[in-house]
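Acyl dehydratase structure dump, as promised
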Amino acid sequence: MFAKYFEEYQIGESWQSKGRTITEADIVNFASLSGDWYPLHTDAEYARQTPFQQRIAHGLLVLSVGSGLLHFEPGIVVAFYSMDEVRFYHPTFIGDTIHVNLEVTELTGHKNETGLVTVRQQLVKQTEEEVATSKVKILVNKK
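structure tokens r here:
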């Protein structure tokens, strides 16, 4: 999605990523990297006693995987500028496959021949349940 110069985007334009299945290894590796060993994510016996009845992926892991499903073209993308209004709606379990839907909602010129592309980001799993949403701004170059 982020492979075009600022002037090439249009409000309302949308894009869908490929899918990615969340694995137990993803959760363990993320817990190791982040230090977040909360038992809802890492302790199967604990998680069985919760309303989810099984381990769930960390919310930040889900957002990170979503970011990895996007395409950021070097030389065009300057920076990941911001993420606001993050909401989590449904859990992501081991074995769920998520993808990202983006819709351009705002285009704002910025300094130094750059512009901000604002998108509504939706993370959706194979059941079509919305897992999370956010407003993301990417700083891209102008032509």
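Helices lie at 24-34, 39-42, 44-48, 59-68.
lmk if u need the other ones
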